[in-house]
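Let's practice the habit of predicting before peeking. Look at the sequence and jot down your guess about where helices and strands might fall. Then scroll down.
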Amino acid sequence: MRTSIDGMKERRLTTLADPDLFYFPFLYMAGKYEFDPFTPQEKETLKRFLTYGGFLFAEDTVGAKGYGFDQAFRREMKQVLPGHELRRLPTDHSVYQSFYLIGSIGGRQRVNTYLEGITIDTWTPVIYSQNDLSGAWSRDKLGRWVYECEPGGELQRSAAFKMGINLIVYSLTSDYKKDVIHHPFIKRRQSL
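Done guessing? Here is the structure:
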């Protein structure tokens, strides 16, 4: 256990039509392939969820820029949050320092050295990766790793775990580490 955050022990599959959706602060969406467009009601529900404080972490588990899941996800986000684009998150974004000070993005594969996000005012309710963090976290029933992490091996896997924890902490705390108390400490740690 790396944090004191008490999460659900079992994963919960949900849809945008689930009446309990707003009880969950963190949504995770992943895929390899193109998916059907959201219905108008699903788009409206997701927009409400994201603009009322919810958080969505999405990842393209294949990492194929401009194809399949990547293409569909970008298309849907433009319609859910018009006027807000997925953009590369700056290195001083709170997600990179919400728990661990992150210097590199891990995952099963290394497609991007950064995360992308949609920021509304100072909150980033959507964060997107193409490095397949969940692939680096995956174990089989015997506890063995399901996938190798290429090209960085176990250091890349460790970085994926740290990024996952940072995503969860960020989704719950936003940018509290940008306050006056934390800022000098973070700057000192980053210079080491």
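How did you do? The chain has a mean pLDDT of 89.
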